Amino acid sequence: MRTWNWILTAALLGSSFIGTSAAAQQAADSQPAAQPTTPAAALAAQPSQPDASTPASTSTAQTTPAAQQPTAPAPPAAAPQTMDQVVNLFIEREHGLIKALASRTPVVETYLQNLANDPQLGPVPSQDHYFLGRMDMGETVDRKDYLKEEEKGFQTRLMGGFAKLYKVQYQPLGFSWMVYADRTDFDREHYDFSYIRREFLGDVRCLVFDVKPKPKSGRGRFLGRVWVEDQDFNIVRLNGTYYPAPRNSYFFHMDSWRLNLIPGYWVPAYIYSEEGDFSAGVKNKMAFKAQTRIWGYDLKKGIKDDELTQIRVDSVKDDSPTAQDASPLQAEREWQQQAEDNVVERLTRAGLLAPEGDVDHILQTVVNNLEVTNNIDLPRPVRTRVLLTAPLETFSVGNTIVISRGLIDVLPDEASLAAVLSHELAHIVLGHNLGSKFAFNDRMLFSDEGTYQNLGFKHIPEEEQAADKKAVELLKNSPYAQKLDNVGLFLKALQARATILNALLTTHLGNPLAEGGTVNRLTALESQGPALDNSKLDQIAALPLGGRVKINPWDDKAEMVKTAPVAITSARDKMPFEVTPFYPRLARYGAGAAANPTPNATPTTAANTNTGN
Ligand SMILES: [Zn+2]
Fold first, then answer.
1. 54-84 pLDDT, tens digit each
2. pLDDT digit string (tens) for 497-540?
3. DSSP string covering 165-199
4. How far is the CA of 458 from the centre of ligand 1 (A)?
5. From the CA of 395, how far away is ligand 1's center (Å)?
């Protein structure tokens, strides 16, 4: 039975984890997948089945029953004959979208890296910033932040862009400004539209238009280009800036993408921003790149605390007859379970945890490998969940291990994934149980924005050290024992940027992987493996953000991204821990192709064979 489990992992991860990683180097000696009938192949194939991947059909009922989907608008009565008619149609659709999403309060996350020029690597991060909040898509697009900052005030409400008063001050809301072209005045009185050409974005044929504000139409008007799909005439992508800017502030450039996640509407999902010019002689040194992601459209709008209290009071009484009383140990475990369930449910409701899904199959398989090879037999199975945010973090509550989307993204291989999971598994094995106080329901009554102030799962230093020690022990008995060089390399890459990427390394619920610019997780493994060497193109120590886990912005489901390997041609291609532009493969609702662009291209069996031993 045990060996069967290993084979399952190797194949499963070969196609969906390792296959997408540093696979560029291995692409040459990979063969077409030759294991179509193993259980793993069946498992790995699931995400591409229409039922599993279509949003809002199966999953929303389970996680977020309250929010209702907007009803799809009627398709255009007659096909437009002229480009003028097309312009009228997409203006109308844009207003329809603004109305349809007006009751939504999605989560919006911006991760920004300031850039400095490095002679070998080109523009590299020199500093970073992180913003996370809920965006009210109602009358005025507004935003409430999960992370409390000292500097607040009038600037918070400043329209898009950032103010340059005495120092550059980024405005979180500014990065999400381009969810719409123009919230209030997207019409022919304020804008000129000119048709450019037809173009495919992914599977979707688009008509491309340039959009320019008319003279004297006011400040902060959209200036740029829109892509309009040619069936219902919705805008699917916007690219440009706002013009003219108010005094003492700037609008930056944005590339904004929408996804067809519900019938009839294309929902704002990703916005990339970039500023900076590193050509010779340029005086303005301000440079950054930033990814903004929006998700949680289907979350319930925040309920007031008093309403919640009423609901809870009704359900406190438990009349169910029990066959027998719990033993003291059983009672203790029940209690832990109750706390764990409360926390998982609350974090999911706050839009911070993905519902259980495909990524968890991979995580659980890796955890299972560690358990089986170490003869760990726990009273309750270990569960895993994906934290939807970018900062690199793991924590555990009860028997649930949580790992952030950003951390899964940057890990170079399965052994490194096993390493970060082993630390949390060690906490569970050692009985370092935190959070039992959350078995009291009153402790779950806080606003979504208050999540980070109310929940926390940080261990004391002694428990951290004990968990690291145990983790190394678990890894050395595991199928990953021969691969710990890669873990060492990852930790070195992390150390190399630990002083710079403070925001990415600031955890909000668990212990940080690095503190004060020094990596403090699994330090015993840091010396393993070769020295970090940027000039070695086959040495991939850490990956850019965004390459592995994809979040469905409507229902928060997480799935593994499937990308074809791209060869690395210079050290600048490595981009460890960095943000990059977005290029989602667009597909129409229900087509299922977005999740599965190149079904045959990914499995790299060369990687598989290395995994199991
Ligand atoms: Zn820990």
1. 333 333 333 334 457 888 888 887 889 999 9
2. 999 999 999 999 999 999 999 999 999 999 998 999 988 998 99
3. SSSEEE-HHHHTGGGSS-TTT-STTTEEEEEEEEE
4. 7
5. 6
